[in-house]
Amino acid sequence: MDIATPPLVHLDATKRSKPLEPLDRLIVALDFASAAAAMELVDQLQGNCRWFKVGMELYYAAGNAVVEHLRARGFEVFLDLKLHDIPNTVAGAVRTVARAGASLLTVHAGGGDAMLRAAVEAASAPDSPRLLAVTVLTSMDAEQLSGVGVCDSAGGLVGAQVLRLAKLAQAAGIDGLVCSADEVGAVREAMGLGPNGEGPLLVVPGIRPAGAEAADQRRVATPAQAIAWGASMLVVGRPITQAVDPARAAAAILKEIAQGA
Ligand code: C5P
């Protein structure tokens, strides 16, 4: 499917003929409580960022207007709403948020086959975002997964669950996946994807430059590691948004992405 406004980057990794530039591979998470606070950071990152992620915190405060505003300023938007509900409700949500012009939208793979297929069907309408399925949150480790009843330990608890959900999402027709850097190589292999970014987008959060605080994240990697292990795009929040000099932090990560590629 094509998006309405000409994209700044070639979104369709399956048709990409050359590797993405570092600027196409960094997504900065605008985890702020207001559009004003988010735009302050956007202004500071001018020239160091093409992609911004709007997650629950900002979307619940500012809605589609903030997505439209970012699009009008020429940025690509990753709308990270992690939809997870009954199929009919998720399909409706996909249709409602599609109007804002985001390029990527997340659903939880754990919502199951019927929910994923309903989301894919809803996103087949013209101008809809591409769908990414979140596998296992990067804030979860094996102990937390077994705490919610995921007890299959074949191949390692977290890795096995990520692969299970990745295959489910791929079969349902999802365009890409969100997983941690730890699993990205295994996902590429299991899904029969090449090492150089062909196929569905593999988007990796839990990125921490050397020496940065992990905070609530559990499965973390440096930008260079995540790229070297097979990530298509990286999601970075606090290492940039909480930095003393966000533009400098973003520039350093872009440099690491270039080195890891
Ligand atoms: O600040 P930090 O770099 O940890 O932010 C990571 C961002 O990526 C957050 O906005 C979070 O919601 C998102 N995310 C994640 N793990 C996932 C999917 C999304 O951390 N599996």
Predict the CATH topology.
TIM Barrel
Ends apart, CA distance between termini:
27 Å
Number of strands: 8
Structural class: alpha/beta
**CATH superfamily caption:** Aldolase class I
Taken together, the total number of domains comes to 1
Assign the CATH architecture: Alpha-Beta Barrel
Top-tier CATH class: Alpha Beta
Strand content: 5-15%
Q: N-to-C SSE series? A: HEHEHEHEHEHHEHEHEHH
Gross geometry = globular
List all distinct small molecules, including ions and cofactors, that are bound in this structure.
cytidine-5'-monophosphate
How would you describe this structure to a colleague?
This protein has an eight-stranded parallel β-barrel with strand order 1-2-3-4-5-6-7-8, surrounded by six helices. It has one domain (21-260): Aldolase class I (TIM Barrel, Alpha-Beta Barrel), CATH 3.20.20.70. By secondary structure, it is an alpha/beta fold. Strand 6 (176-178), helix 8 and strand 7 (201-204) form a beta-alpha-beta unit. The chain has helices at 22-25, 35-44, 56-72, 87-98, 113-122, 142-147, 157-172, 181-190, 223-228, 238-241, 246-260, and strands spanning 26-29, 51-55, 76-83, 104-108, 130-134, 176-178, 201-204, 233-236. The longest helix has 17 residues, at 56-72. Helix 4 runs parallel beside helix 5. Residues 29, 31, 55, 80, 134, 137-138, 178, 205-207, 217, 235-239 line the site of cytidine-5'-monophosphate.
